[in-house]
Amino acid sequence: MPKHGKNYTGAAAKVEAGKTYSPKEAMALVKELSTAKFDETVEVAVRLGVDTRKADQNVRGSISLPNGTGKDVRVAVFAEGEKAREAEAAGADIVGSDELVADIQAGNINFDAVIATPNLMGKVGRLGRILGPRGLMPNPKLGTVTMDVEKMVKELKAGRVEYRADRYGICHVPMGKVSFTAEALAENYGALYSELLRVKPSTAKGRYVKSVVVSSTMGPGVRVDSSVTRDFTA
Fold first, then answer.
1. C-alpha distances in angstroms, 97 versus 5, 79, 103, 172?
2. What distances in angstroms separate CA 66 from CA 63, 188, 200, one per listed residue?
3. C-alpha distances in angstroms, 164 versus 21, 78, 135, 173, 211?
4. I want to staple 1 with a disulfide (CB 3.0 to 4.6 A). Which of 5, 69, 82, 86 is the partner?
5. For residue 234, what are the contacts with CB-CB under 8 A and spacing of at least 6?
6. pLDDT at residue 9 in the model
7. Are strands 75-78 and 94-96 parallel, antiparallel or unpaired?
8. CA–CA separation, 119 and 146 (whole Å)
9. Which residues contact 2 (CB under 8 A, 6 or more apart)?
């Protein structure tokens, strides 16, 4: 059996079957179970009782995590003139208009997030087939179509993440790195979980949060007690 398989099996054996852990306990266990030689990403998967086929039950948005994600986020901004200068000053990695459109059409996608000023969305719209499937299309509901490019660049750089329930009702969101403290990961988790509770669709029936599982990139899943809605670092 490959080395990774043995490590994973050994780590999984430390997760008590059927047990749900408090957020901080879960984060501490995920850190303990990390066996990779790189700084693994910690991701949470929240399964919601929503029917995403219904427009009024689509759960989607973004939130700034209090401790960031630990990832160096590369931000591209479609802007001209003064707004382009604002974006550059705020730390945007790529700023442009027609030339940026041409670069993307040529297959040069060297960024993790995209912002656009409203007046350039006509040009950005031509990139829908390229950016859309990658989840990179600017969206006013997510704040990435905005005139306040400085604020959004800084938020994305600091650790703003998007959440979106897939067709199975599951939101997969990065919470940070295993190098974070358990407290920092629990704080990030608490911010996201509180946000998901806040945006619960009024038409959602039955149990809203069905399960929560946290894991590192190469590690096993750890179930989190979804009844904990405050004091996430306790």
1. 47, 6, 10, 31
2. 9, 6, 21
3. 24, 24, 10, 8, 16
4. 5
5. 22, 24
6. 66
7. parallel
8. 9
9. none
* In contact, 224 and 212? CB cutoff 8 Å: yes
DSSP string covering 1-54? --HHHHHHHHHHTTSPTT--B-HHHHHHHHHHH---SS-PEEEEEEEE---TTS
Indicate if the alpha-carbon torsion angle 137, 143, 148, 154 is positive or negative. Answer: negative
| Amino acid at residue number 191 | A
- b/e for 67-76, b at 16 or more Cβ within 10 A? bbbbeebebb
Q: What is the mean pLDDT of each run of 10 residues along the chain (234 residues)?
A: 56 80 96 91 97 92 92 95 97 97 95 96 96 93 94 92 93 95 97 96 94 94 95 91
**pLDDT computed for residue 12 by the predictor:** 67
